[in-house]
Amino acid sequence: MSLPRFFSKPVALEFDTGQSVTLEFEPSDYHHIAHVMRVCVGEETEVVVRDTWRAYRMKVLGFCEPSIVFEVLEVLEMAQPSHRIALFFGLSKGDKNDTIVRQAVEIGAHALYPVLFSRSVVKLDEKKIVARSERLRKIAQSAAQQSHRQTIPQVCDIASLGDVTTLQYLDSYDHVYVLWEETQGITLTKLINESLATAREDESFACVVGPEGGITREEIELLVEHGALCASLGSSILRVDTANAVTLGVLCALLGEASS
User: Chain centroid to CA 111: how far?
Assistant: First the structure.
């Protein structure tokens, strides 16, 4: 059985086996460790220190809210992925966004961009955008802990597709694929394999999946102007959360990085 994993606040140090260290946690994280998971003195956990993103197997020596004292038992080494993988997903109604973020982190995304498209059902004011963005970041951290990721994937603030920042993020990826139901005869697998035939090991990849209402032709034209290639997942009509998971799963599997 794997040990529970937590993310501490940043510390600009690296630790050695046998060392006693005191690490501070965010109040909500400390509460989760001490009062929800009920981790006790003497128990072992895995801790990743933010910013340095070094992972350790540690034994709990004591609690001093919001800090915990540990003994370092082992420095954990994990292979770092060679490709950057991102998901731009259309903001949906209800709790579908939570599911999309959780599954994307588990599958292997390194960055997530929640996007408001023309046909997005959700309408948010500035206050709700901030609150919803923060909620998605907390879900990403929880999923990273559960799936034993060594970093917490970046979740950017919710923004419209046409925002300059969104387009700049899109332009930062070497290969971008947009899932569009009107695409004929061009599968996502085919496009990714064609890209991999000439791609360098350090190149980055991104997928774009629209909201429930789909992506307009004008938005497709904008995405294509910024280097996106249109692809299809087949003839089946998928729920948005399913479409995001399948799209990212295909990409990560073909890149050989279904886990990171």
Answer: 5
Strand ranges for 154-204 from DSSP E: 154-155, 159-160, 175-179
Q: Cα–Cα distance between 159 and 90 in angstroms, integer?
A: 10
The CA distance from 175 to 258, in Å, is 18
- The number of beta carbons lying within 10 Å of the beta carbon of residue 164 is 8
29-62 as b/e: b if 16+ CB within 10 A: bbebbbeeeebeeeeebbbbbbeeebbbbbebee
* pLDDT digit string, tens, across residues 171-223: 999 999 999 988 988 999 999 999 998 888 889 999 999 999 899 999 999 99
Residue 141, burial from CB neighbour count under 10 angstroms (0-12, 13-18, 19+): buried
How far does the chain reach from its first CA to its final CA, in angstroms?
Answer: 19
239-258 confidence digits (pLDDT tens): 999 999 999 999 999 988 43
